[in-house]
Amino acid sequence: MFLGELTYPVANIEGVGPAAVRNLAALGVVNVAQLLRHYPTRYEDRKNPVPLALSSADKPAMTVATIIRQEYIHWKRGQALKVIVRDDSDVASMLCFGRNFLAGKLTPGRQIRLTGPFERNRHGELQSGSFVFEDFDDESESKDFGLILPVYPLSGTLTQSLLRKAVRSALDSYALGLRNEIPDSLRRKMDFPDKGKCMRDIHFPDENTDADNARRALIFEELFHLQITVARRASTARPEGHDSRPWSDNLIDKLRKELPFELTPDQDSSLDDIRRDLASGRPMSRLLQGEVGSGKTLVAFMAALGVIAAGRQAAFMAPTELLARQHADNAARLLEPLGVKVAFLTGDVTGSSRSALTTALSAGDVDLAVGTHALFGTDVGFKDLGLAIIDEQHRFGVDQRRSLTEKGKAADVLALSATPIPRTLALTAFGDMDVSSIRTMPAGRLPVETHLARMGNENKVYDFVRRELGAGNRAYFVYPLIEESEKSALKDAENMFSRLSDEIFPEFKAALVHSRVDEEEKRRIMSDFREGRLNLLIATSVVEVGVDVPDATCMVVEHAERFGLSALHQLRGRVGRGTVQSYCFLVYAEPLTDDGKKRMMIMKETHDGFILAEEDLMMRGPGDMAGTRQSGFLRLSIADPVRDLNVLLDARVKAQEFIAMDPGLLGAEMIDLRELFAICPPFDENLLSTG
C-alpha cells in the first residue's frame, strides 16, 4: 500500500461521524495512521475460561452460567434486581442497579455466557455490578464472546464498541501490505512478526501471547527508530575526517597552581574527556552534567583555557543576564590574572560599546566572550572560535545553539547541565552527545539538611531562620507566584516580601527579586546579597539556576507542593555552597496528592541529584522530561523509555550495529524516517538535537 493512504482523515472510515471525529481529535487521532497507533491499554479476555470462583477485580470471570432465581434488594433509588447464577465452580450474584428491565431476559433456568469482575463482599458472597452476558446457544455463533477484545483510551462520547469497529475497519481497508519499518534481516533475527500481523495482533489478538509478541515488536521498532534518528543526527553534526584541534595545558597548569584546592577526580576525568575529544577526528559534542555546586563551571573554564592557550577563542553562553554576569565576574577573577582577555556581551550592551566589543572579537583581541543569546547576534563574529560552552543548554533552542557554533570552523561544543540527566533520557534525547558526569562534591561540602513543614507551622521555620541570620548567615525565601492572584490562594513573593521585611524580620535587610525586576536592579540586589549588605532574598524560582552565595545557609520554599522535584533540587542547591551546615525547609499546604507526598519524602531522604532525576522521570513519565520545554518532548505511542529501558539499550546497540554494517542499507530496507515521522511522528525531532 502507499504510505500516503495512512494520512487519510479518520472521517473516511465507515461509522466515524462528526462527533467521533471531534472526540478522536481530542485524543490526538486525526488520520488513519494515528488511529492504528492508538493502541489498547489492556484487553478483555472473553475467550479463555475463568470460573466464578477464581474471578477478581483484576481477573474477570469468563464462564457459562445458569440463572437460579431473581430477587430485589433495597437501593438508594428504590429496588434493584439481583440475579443469582451458578457455574461449575460457585454461586454468584449479578447486581442490576438501574437495569431492572433485565428481569425479562435473565429468567430462571436460562443459560448465559457471562463475563465481569466478581468479588466477595464482607459476607463472603460473590457479586458483580459490572457484567456482560448473552444467551448461550451451542448452535449460534457469538458476536461478543470467544474473542480477546481491546480496551482503548476514550474521550467524550466515544465508546469501546465504536472504536473497535473503527480500528477493525481501518485495518481491513488500509493496513493490507503495511511495509516493515525495521530491516527484514533484523526482524527475522529478533523473531518479530511482520508489520501487518503486528498491527492486527496488537488490536485483535487471537491469543494473549499474540498481543504480547506484537507489543514487544512495536516497542522495539519505536525505540530503534529513535536511536537511528539520534545516530543520524550525531553523524551529521559530528562527521569523521576532521583534523585534531590545537590544545595546550599551559594556562590550565597555571590556574591549578593558583587554586586553593585540588580538582575532584570527576573534574579531572571530565577534563580528560574534553582533551581526548579535541584530539579526535570529529567535532566535540559533549554534555557535562553534575550536581549543583560540583564544579562544572571550573571545568568549562579550564576547557576554554586549553583552547585559548593554543591560539583560538572560546564563547560561554548562559540563559539569563544574571547568570551570564556571574560567569563573567568569575572568569575575570580567575582567568584575567593569567592574561586571558574576557568580554561580556548581552542585549543591553549597545551603541559604541557594542561596536567596540564586536570589532575586538572579530579581530581576535578577545579570548573569551561571556554572554547571553546576544552572542549569536548577526553582528557578532569571531576570528577563530574553537569552543562554544553552553550553560543550562536545555534552555536554548536548537537553532540558537547552532547559530553560535556556526560562528567558528567546526567549533566544538561543551554543554553544561546542573540538572542531572537520567540515564534513560541521556540515551534518548541526548544520545548524540557524549556525556561526562561530576558526581563527587568539592572537599568540605556538607549535605544540606532538608526539613518538611506543614503550612500553619511556618513560624517555627521563621524562628530557625532568625537564629541563622543572627549568626551572620543569609537566607532565601521562594514563592510560586510574583503577585497575588484572584484564581489562587497561594502565597506570592510581593506580599510575602512586605510581611517578611516589615513584620517577621524587621531587624534584617531584605530585597525582592523576580522576572519583572529590571536586569540592572536585579544585578545590584544580587551583588548586595552576595556581599552581605542584604540578609534576606525573597524571590520566585528565578533564583533556581546559577546563583552562588556561599554564606547563604537557609532555603525556604513555601508551597513546595507546587514545584517539581528538579526545581526543588535546584533551589536546595542554592545553599550548602560553603563549609557551614545549611538547611532547606519545604513548607507545603494540605491536602497533598499522592505524588506530592512522594515528592516531599524523596526530597527529605535523597540528596543525590542523579537519583532524584531518575525518580522525577519515573513520576512524570517520558512525556515530561525536557526541563523548560517538556510538553510533547517524546511523543512515543507505545514505548516508554523508563519502563522499557532494557529494550532501549538493545535498540541502541542494534541501531549502531546496523549503521556500522552498511549505512546505505537504511534507504533500501527501511522507510525514510522523515516520511514516517511526517505521517505520524513518534517524537519531535527538533527537540532531540543538541548541536
Structural class: alpha/beta
Gap between N and C termini: 37 Å
**Average pLDDT across residues?**
84
Largest sheet: 7 strands, mixed
Q: What portion of residues belong to β-strands?
A: 15-25%
Number of helices: 23
Task: Sum up the overall morphology in one term.
Answer: globular
In CATH, what is the class of the domain at 449-606? Alpha Beta
Q: Radius of gyration from the CA trace?
A: 31 Å
CATH topology of the domain at 449-606: Rossmann fold
Low-confidence stretches: 623-634, 665-691
Number of strands: 22
Within CATH, the superfamily of the domain at 449-606 carries the name: P-loop containing nucleotide triphosphate hydrolases
> Widest sheet: strand order?
6-7-4-3-2-5-8
Which architecture of the domain at 449-606 per CATH? 3-Layer(aba) Sandwich
Helix content class: 25-40%
Descriptive report:
Among the domains are: 48-146, OB fold (Dihydrolipoamide Acetyltransferase, E2P) (Beta Barrel); 449-606, Rossmann fold. It is built from 23 helices and 22 strands. Helix 8 packs parallel to helix 9. It starts with 17 loop residues before the first helix and ends with a helix.
SSE layout and pairing:
Layout: H1 18-26, H2 32-36, E1 42-45, E2 61-75, E3 78-86, E4 91-96, E5 111-116, E6 119-120, E7 126-128, E8 132-135, E9 148-151, H3 160-174, H4 184-190, H5 195-203, H6 208-237, H7 250-258, H8 265-278, E10 285-290, H9 296-308, E11 313-317, H10 321-335, E12 342-345, H11 351-363, E13 368-371, E14 385-391, H12 398-405, E15 412-417, H13 423-428, E16 434-438, E17 449-454, H14 458-470, E18 474-478, H15 493-504, E19 510-513, H16 519-531, E20 536-539, E21 552-558, H17 565-572, E22 583-588, H18 594-605, H19 609-620, H20 645-661, H21 665-669, H22 673-679, H23 685-688
Parallel strand pairs: 4-7, 10-15, 10-16, 11-13, 11-14, 12-13, 14-15, 17-22, 18-20, 18-21, 19-20, 21-22
Antiparallel strand pairs: 1-9, 2-3, 2-5, 3-4, 5-8, 6-7
